[in-house]
Amino acid sequence: MPVNESLAWLATTPEGDALGKAAAQSVKIVHESRPWWAFPAEPMHWFYSIFGIAPHSFYAAALFLVMAAVAGWLAFRQAGWRAGLAWMTTLTMTLIGGMQAHGWLYTRIPSGIRYEVPAHSTFRLANLHCHTQASGGVLLPADALRWHLRKGFTVVGVTDSNKTYPGLRAQSEAAEQDLGVVVVPGEEYRGTTHLLMFGLKEAIRADQVDIASAMAKAREQGALVIAAHTWTGQQTSKQLLEWGAAGFEACNGPTTVDEATLQLAREHHLALLGSLDFRQGNAPKTATVVPYEANTAEKVLQALREGRCATLYCPEWREDTKFSYWVRLKHNFPGLVRRGGIWLIPGLILWWKFAVLARRYAPCQPRRGLEIILMLAVGGGVLGIWAVWWKYKLGWFPSLELALSLWVVACPLGWYLAGCEWLYGREGRQQAL
Ligand SMILES: [Zn+2]
Out of 108, 165, 243, 357, which residue is the most buried by the measure of CB atoms under 10 Å away? Predict the structure, then answer.
């Protein structure tokens, strides 16, 4: 299957056009295969790449809950309420926890798409929309910066939801560790429309300030405001412009803004950003091109103010603002196959063998001690899901690493216990023997 992966750009000024053109002509898209040693995780990668596609992880989680409920119902019919409950909790934990664990793992494993920027370029690649663990991302600030460097980005806007401290932390860590990346500290104001705010003196929270006053406050602080993924917001682009938006996200991942907003940006020479809205993953689908001289946060913001930037994107990956599962699958599937699909086979064999062994050697009689362990494991899994879901809003939830470690222990334990007769039913257990 021939792949036509040329790059294109969007810009609103002659300088922006020149940057976009230079980047589109010289940046190379590189596909890195998944390493062979990740083969045990390959079935999981296929599963989540196919069933985990959703505009929001909430929908994928809902799908997994339905799958778990159906399995629980079948087990209940066959072997009673304890079996039903155990199957439902074990599967919920495995599927939803696995989704999060998968996101974390495939962000960490060096594979996927990366951009190769030639030396002595006139431009830099920037991503000015990045979440860390402080708001639903899977990486800590310094690790998020390293991820971007590996992918070809040398300017990163750290924009956690309604808070500025992760961006400031990223900036100081980049300096301490000499990472060679320009950090632009910011926040994503998540009100009725989401806004990227850079250069704030203090955080502006959506639960305290409505959008019009938030933009006025940001202006008072001398901050730069970019309207993020306007198609999910309630305000019109025109309204946002009147309130002081200095630009729009032209692309958020593969999704591209409507033509009217692009036209408005062109008329007013506004900044057009290609943002990853990075939380996890390994296939960046867009970038913002800024001048090479923009080697400090201030210079990056100045370039954006003057419209000296461009959005880099690949027309073949483009999706419009109305999400379609099938379009996303069509775009992602070739990468799934060509970047290491062969490892699916040994991966499946490994887990099939594991399932057979778990069923054969699981305890025949349910014991009280094991029930307590299962309850603890389920509790840990639920706490982990809670931690991820509520994005550490209250600050006392376990860290993502702890939650994932709990899942890693809880899931195989659940499968092992699923070999019990009160899970399979006496007949199923005897068949396995
Ligand atoms: Zn957002």
Answer: 243
